[in-house]
Q: What sequence folds into this?
């Protein structure tokens, strides 16, 4: 039960599972057939070939299962890494807000701006007038020493790209 | 920041679950008892069950046997929780009652499959018949002279095994009925637990990636 798997992983995992299931059905078919052949005294060459097909299919099933497991595990790791990254980003935002002396309102506006909300969205979310939000955002830019939202965002990205995600406990590093 | 998405079982669990369910319904309701299709569907179910068991050994953590060990103690505690009206606790895999149901279904299914195979042998080899005395019919098509004693032995086995054959058929039928009874209980359990916990237990077994939100 992968709680938050990436959308692209699901169809691939489903396809592998379907192929593995088909292979398992085929294995059963051949096993039954081999048993029938042995019972009916079909020549050993035929039975040997079929037995080899069974082994090959069984190997395919096992490999497919292992691959599916690896795929699911990597999806899980990715969503965990994403959570770590999200946590790291909010830590960075907190520490920057302190550093720049942002008021709580300014910090919230900055977070919304980083999330890509425009002035009207932020105003609606914060129950404030668009003019107020624009003024707060301008002060955020001033305090951060940047001229645009993109420049503000890049300040945070810099921090995250420079440091490996694992070292989230020390964001100011 | 708890996400309220429905946790879904991995695709292999879902596939084998619905495959086995479809096979059991097909053989219980649609195919003629002992017919070729009946036997092939049975082998298909056996394959899916074996696959699920392999997944129980090497699959992701919540699909493994170790994630839902059968425990009467835990099941009893779970029942007490329900009776007390305690809020539903979260389980990584099946809840303790569900785990018991899983093993009950698997065990019954294994009995039905085993007795089915014992009765029919490989499909397409022996001509399947519905009569009780056709049970455990070995192949009698071989007409070589050099295996008289072997065939004679087979016949004796069959004569001796007649009573056993009836017992096997009896077990197959009782097992199949038990299977449907358990499946009915399983459905009731899912419905009850969904109401109690408010979680999308059915959705977790359905296809699709974007989950409906469930109030927790």
A:
């Amino acid at each position: 039960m992968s709680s938050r798997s990436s959308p692209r992983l699901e169809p691939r995992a489903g396809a592998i599972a379907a192929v593995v299931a088909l292979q398992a059905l085929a294995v059963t078919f051949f096993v039954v057939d081999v048993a029938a052949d042995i019972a009916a005294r079909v020549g050993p060459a035929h039975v040997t070939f079929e037995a080899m097909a069974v082994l090959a299919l069984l190997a395919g099933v096992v490999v497919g299962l292992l691959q599916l497991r690896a795929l699911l595990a990597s999806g899980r790791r990715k969503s965990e890494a994403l959570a770590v990254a999200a946590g790291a980003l909010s830590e960075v935002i907190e520490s920057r807000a302190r550093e720049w002396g942002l008021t709580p309102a300014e910090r919230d506006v900055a977070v919304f701006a980083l999330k890509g909300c425009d002035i009207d969205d932020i105003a609606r979310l914060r129950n404030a007038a668009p003019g107020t939000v624009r003024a707060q955002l301008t002060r955020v830019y001033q305090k951060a020493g940047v001229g645009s939202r993109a420049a503000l965002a890049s300040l945070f990205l810099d921090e995250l790209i420079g440091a490996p995600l694992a070292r989230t406990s020390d964001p100011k590093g | 920041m708890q996400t309220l998405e429905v946790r879904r079982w991995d695709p292999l669990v879902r596939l084998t679950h619905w495959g086995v369910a479809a096979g059991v319904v097909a053989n219980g309701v649609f195919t003629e008892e002992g017919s070729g299709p009946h036997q092939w569907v049975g082998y298909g179910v056996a394959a899916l069950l074996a696959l699920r068991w392999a997944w129980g050994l090497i699959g992701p953590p919540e699909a493994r046997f170790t994630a839902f060990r059968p425990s009467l103690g835990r099941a009893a505690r779970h029942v007490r929780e329900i009776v007390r009206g305690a809020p539903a606790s979260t389980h990584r895999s099946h809840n303790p009652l569900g785990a018991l149901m899983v093993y009950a279904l698997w065990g019954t299914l294994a009995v039905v499959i085993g007795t089915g195979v014992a009765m029919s042998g490989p499909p397409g080899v022996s001509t399947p018949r519905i009569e009780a005395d056709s049970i455990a019919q070995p192949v009698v098509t071989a007409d070589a002279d050099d295996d008289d004693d072997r065939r004679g032995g087979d016949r004796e086995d069959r004569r001796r095994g007649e009573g056993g054959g009836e017992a096997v058929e009896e077990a197959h039928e009782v097992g199949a009925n038990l299977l449907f009874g358990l499946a009915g209980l399983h459905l009731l359990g899912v419905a009850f637990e969904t109401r109690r916990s408010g979680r999308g237990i059915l959705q977790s077994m359905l296809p699709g990636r974007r989950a409906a939100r469930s109030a927790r």
